Amino acid sequence: MLAIFNKGLVDAPQELNSPVSLQGSKKPKQPEQTLKDFMSCQPTDGFSIGFPNKACLAFAPLDRAYTTSQRLFCGVDGIYCMFLGTLQNLCSLIRQYGLSKTANDAMFVIEAYRTLRDRGPYPAHQVLRDMDGSFGFVVYDTKASTVFVALSADEGVKLYWGVGGDGSVVISDNLEVIKGSCAKSFAPFPAGCMYHNEGG
Fold first, then answer.
1. What is the β-pairing status of strands 146-151 and 133-141?
2. What average pLDDT score do residues 152-159 get?
3. Which residues of 169-194 are buried (b: 16+ CB within 10 A; e: fewer)?
4. Which of 16, 83, 121, 133 is 20 to 30 Å apart from 175, CA to CA?
């Protein structure tokens, strides 16, 4: 999975900006080239969605033959979620949030995000604390121009983020894509942490 958010929508933490990236022979790539590189190494069932002057999301399902984890993409009412991993307590969360029994992990994350956005005062860390499993996700709300990223504390799933050539923030579970796109301006997304573009 790959998410690219334009500078201004998501401002990269200062620690991700490496001065070595600008001085070295290998420069960070522009978002268009990053997307092209990501899509070229995906099977034929990969796709991307662009939001002009805001963001781009690219997704390809995992090859089930090689993993017990899952990768999901879901979109509801202008809210998009890319989810990697598994929620062990999904059934109880579905009951708690009043969702259909057919809801998957990504659908639950969108509903949890909407609860935070619309019905507060649930603190985001409390919602994440209720989620049991190995997971990482990226949520993009096109109407509110909000980005929400989180990674479980158990380090069973990895996410990486970095800064592209135009200052955009690049997030992926593919380390090679991040290394190739962000030169030296990248790092693992911290386990057990979340990022929200309105509150860090």
1. antiparallel
2. 93
3. bbbbbbeebbebbbbbbbeebeeeeb
4. 133
